[in-house]
Design goal:
Shape: globular
Family: Belongs to the amino acid-polyamine-organocation (APC) superfamily. Amino acid transporter (AAT) (TC 2.A.3.1) family.
Largest sheet: none
Oligomer: single chain
Protein name: Amino acid permease
InterPro entries: AA-permease/SLC12A_dom (IPR004841), Amino_acid_permease_CS (IPR004840), APC_YAT (IPR050524)
Keywords: Amino-acid transport, Membrane, Transmembrane, Transmembrane helix, Transport
Distance between the termini: 19 Å
Subcellular location: Membrane
Structural class: mainly alpha
């Protein structure tokens, strides 16, 4: 995969229904100012994490990077738990996207059962992933491009409306002059939105999974990470600012949060007020591409994670086999089967069971981010302990050691406080439902440690080697250019 594929994979993984539909709810909850503060804070955290991921991935570009780094730099048991945690997260996400796809298609064809569309989309995405890594990258590039163009069009329309070129906005800053309501609900509301924003940004780390199949990962991965972060921040911060200007935070339409609420999406409302015809139908099509993009990315990421674990002895060896095009077909089929099972669980009316599956996976992304921060901190320590110089790193995270430490602390706060309202209210079942993913992760970690007797990896014993073909290509490129990479 090329640089454009990597960039769109990261962008596509983090821009979805959370921005197109649920973003209005964050403004309704915390006011326009509170939502901006929360998204900016999460953006800072993700920026630090992506720097950590970039440093490790550029040095050791492998498929399933998170579990490999956690295994090499923390402990084999920690890597085992991170790997299965991430695989399960995306496999269940695929199921969730299938359910959402059926809901979206009912906008146009309400008489066709949702399971028909879910089955068709699962078959199509599985076939696309089975072709090759390049086919996946190309498919994700175009799906993500639709989302990017939509966001850019939204930002442009919003700016024109603010300056009175479109629509009839009398005072574009009126919603920012409401005193304390700019930060409606105070710090507690901002903290709540902080959690929501964290979920919205999940998927940015997909570039690390794809690095193992990039053309020139040591050059392209850092470039993609640097460019992608600022683009995502522009999209999110810009969108929140424009929604805050054009739609009062008291507008009940902002409370819409599901795929079925396309008519109440802040994007739809702004486009309609700008005089754009068929805004709801157009946004429904965009939301469908966002859902398919998430399902496409989910299949790819979880397949490569299962493949990587099979090669490291943490999953059955059959999942480590590839076809002639380098695709781990058995790992792909196993992941698709889990997605199908999750969808069928929702289809047969076991809504509670399906909700619990989603809740189990809800914390998975944050746990993986914790793993990235912890792995990077120990990676750099081990790299120096073995006598290497940071000058020799293909990409160096500029804020080490503060970067991974700050990100780690912020993530722990997110995980602990993600549903503090239920904790304070004493709603035991709701607390269990929200936090069930954490004890399951810890259980995987501790049981594996008890069985294998694995210990924390010493700095002096860390495996810092990269795949041989990467080292060879770097050496050839260095000889050709007369420079070190």
């Amino acid at each position: 995969m090329s640089s454009r594929h990597l960039q769109m994979i990261a962008i596509g993984g983090s821009i979805g229904t959370g921005l197109f539909v649920a973003s209005g709810g964050t403004i309704a909850q915390a006011g326009p100012g509170g939502a901006l503060v929360a998204y900016a804070a999460v953006g800072l955290m993700v920026y630090l994490l992506m720097q950590s991921l970039g440093e490790m991935t550029a040095k050791i570009p492998v498929a399933g990077s998170f579990q490999t780094f956690a295994t090499r730099f923390v402990s084999p048991s920690f890597g085992f738990a991170i790997g299965w945690n991430y695989w399960f997260n995306w496999a269940i996400t695929v199921a969730a996207e299938l359910v959402a796809a059926g809901i979206v298609m009912s906008f146009w064809l309400p008489d066709v059962p949702g399971w028909v569309w879910a089955g068709l989309f699962l078959a199509a995405l599985t076939a696309l992933n089975a072709l090759s890594a390049k086919a996946f990258g190309e498919g994700e590039f175009w799906l993500a491009l639709i989302k990017v163009v939509t966001v850019i069009a939204f930002l442009a329309a919003g700016v024109l409306m603010i300056f009175g070129v479109l629509g009839s906005q009398s005072d574009p800053l009126a919603n920012w002059k409401e005193g304390k309501d700019v930060f409606h609900g105070g710090w507690l509301s901002i903290i709540s939105v902080f959690m929501i924003a964290g979920f919205s940004f999940q998927g940015t780390e997909l570039v690390g999974v794809a690095a193992g199949e990039a053309k020139d990962p040591r050059r392209e991965v850092p470039k993609a990470i640097r460019r992608v972060f600022w683009r995502i921040m522009l999209f999110y911060i810009g969108a929140i600012f424009i929604i805050g200007c054009l739609i009062p935070f008291t507008d009940p339409s902002l409370l819409a949060s599901g795929e079925a609420d396309v008519a109440s999406s802040p994007f739809t409302l702004v486009f309609e007020r700008a005089g754009i015809a068929f805004a709801a139908a157009a946004m429904n099509a965009v939301i469908l591409t966002a859902i398919l993009s998430a399902g496409n990315s989910g299949l790819y990421a979880s397949t490569r994670m299962l493949y990587s674990m099979a090669h490291d002895g943490k999953a059955p060896k059959i999942f480590g086999k590839t076809n002639s095009r380098g695709v781990p077909v058995m790992a792909l089929l196993a992941t698709a089967a889990v997605g199908l099972f999750g969808f069928l669980t929702a289809l047969v009316g076991q809504g509670a069971a399906y909700t619990w599956l989603l809740n189990v996976s809800g914390l998975c992304g944050f746990i993986v981010w914790v793993g990235i921060a912890a792995s990077h901190y120990r990676f750099r320590r081990g790299y120096l302990a073995q006598g290497y110089s940071v000058k020799d790193l293909p990409y160096r995270a500029p804020f080490f050691p503060l970067g991974p430490i700050v990100a780690f602390v912020m993530l722990i706060a997110v995980i602990v406080g993600q549903n503090y309202q239920a904790v304070l209210a004493g709603h035991a079942l709701e607390v269990l439902s929200a936090y069930i993913g954490l004890p399951l992760f810890l259980g995987l970690w501790l049981v594996h440690r008890m069985i294998t007797k694995s210990k924390m990896v010493k700095y002096s014993e860390m495996d810092l080697s990269a795949p041989e073909d990467i080292e060879e290509s770097a050496a050839v490129r260095s000889a050709r250019t007369g420079m070190t990479n």
